[in-house]
Amino acid sequence: MANTADFRNGLVIEFNNDLYTIVQFQHVKPGKGPAFVRTKLKSLKNGRVIDNTFSSGTKVTLARVERRPYQYLYKDDMGFYFMHLETFEQIHVPDTLIENNEFLLEGASVEIVVHADTETVLSVDIPQSVVMEVTYSEPGLRGDTANNSLKQAKVKNGAIIMVPLFVNTGDKIRIDTRDKSYVERVKG
User: Fold this and answer.
1) Strand 49-55 to 79-84 pairing
2) Which residue has the higher pLDDT, 111 or 123?
3) Residue 181 sits in a domain of what CATH number?
4) 178 Rama class: left (phi>0) / alpha (psi -120 to 50) / beta
């Protein structure tokens, strides 16, 4: 058992017969009345984000979760397959548990979050950024740099990313997998 003073981002708690991870929290001490904690909780079962307010000092049950290192192997009709980096055990994970799974590259190292009591996979944390090759983009117009103009570019996995005008077909770019945004052009 823990209480609201132990809250931190990423903490997994049992709440309303479900497992939630704390996405955001804020301790509030109003001038009048008791203190409370305002939170955003993300369900690990269905991915929905809810807002909830806890009274200060409320007891919560912590869920025992483990982060285990895995390597992405391949994908088929059933989902994604990963191999544990120490035991070489392979597991199958449905695509619904992997956010932005189109950016998974074969051989990529990931962390799989597992509920330690039931040994069920809760989520897969993919790398925060990946390097991919641009397979198609419209050519940028020379001298059109008066503002931060963006254009669409298609990368190797088929995703459409908004990139600056100077990025051309064949360039390698770094993509932030959390929000599918362009980070930088990679040389070589």
Assistant:
1) unpaired
2) 111
3) 2.40.50.140
4) alpha
